Amino acid sequence: MSQQYGPPPGPPPAPAPGGWGTGQQAPHAPHGPQGPQGGPGGAGGGVPGGRGPGGGGPGGGWGPGPMRPSHPPKPNRTPWIIMAAAIVAVLLVAVGVVLLVNGKDDTPVAGGDGPQTPEPIGTMYTPSPTPTPDDAKGPNDVGVEVGYGIWFTPSKGWLPDWDKTKAGKNYILQQFNARGLIDGYYWVRQTELYDAKGFAEHLVDVESNGMEGVRIGQGTVCRPANPKIKACYALTYTGIWVAKNGTRIPFQGFVTAYQDQFDRVTATDAGLEVRVYARRVNELIYMNNSVIKSF
User: Which of 236, 138, 226, 150 has its CA nearest to residue 190?
Assistant: First the structure.
């Protein structure tokens, strides 16, 4: 009956100097039968009585086995992946907000690709349209058209002046049974270079150049009933008109200038011989009233 040897009693022997460090020990193999020298047989192919890998000191036994080579720990990349994904998500959200804010005006609206009405800038106040002159003929425009939509009605017996080189419209009152001689004139002229007062003063100066001993009365601001007349100014004058044959004829007259809402001035220059003035002055007033109604 064969006898089996187990590991020697007691703690394993200490490793010999210069041996392998502490590591995972291989399991003990059963010892073989005692050899002829009485020493225990080596296990695992070790040299009997000597040191094998992991062998103990003299006398046999297993020492600490060799350790596995150490490897550096693998880096944990999971936190970096999560952080990168979070950054990408934040960037995508920011880009979406920018596109939403800057691209809202590019959204097509109903009405096709045609031009769109721009949004108003500033206040929503709409100024009133600028009025324009209405020079069309009206119910009070009767007789002779002067301009700017102004007409006048000549009094009975007054005829157009035969001198067509004069500006405006000039009508004359011929003397009875005296061809070529006149008792009076009614001359309508217009301008945009003067206001009512300035044009009236200018025409009186023009008339005074053809007369002697001219006296100009004090100017008067008149107020016609027609609301379309913005301003009115009148001047009176007297003087001696000298004929070509040297005859001296006393004249008396007045200039009245009417300014409309567009600063266009229509002036009437009316004069009569002093000898017929009192009898014919109403004819001049009648023609002036027709001008006032025509505005």
Answer: 150
Return the number of other C-beta atoms located less than 10 Å from residue 249's C-beta. 16
Name the amino acid, one letter, at 98. V
Residue 231 maps to a domain: yes
**What is the sign, positive or negative, of the torsion defined by CA atoms of 214, 215, 218, 222?**
negative
User: At 31, phi and psi to the nearest 5?
Assistant: -75, 145
Question: pTM of the prediction?
Answer: 0.57
Q: Could you give the 3-state DSSP secondary structure of residue 259?
A: strand
- 55 falls within a domain: no
Number of domains in the chain: 1
Beta strands in 126-247 (DSSP E): 144-147, 150-152, 159-160, 169-174, 182-191, 211-216, 220-221, 229-242
On whether residue 274 sits in a domain, the answer given is: yes
For residue range 120-172, list pLDDT tens digits in order. Answer: 565 666 667 788 888 999 999 999 999 999 999 999 999 999 888 999 999 99
- How far apart are alpha carbons 266 and 293 in whole angstroms? 13
Distance CA 287, CA 285 (A): 5
- Domain housing 233: 144-294
**What's the token pair of residue 129?**
């349209």
> Is there a contact between 149 and 190 (Cβ–Cβ < 8 Å)?
no
Does some domain include residue 188?
Answer: yes
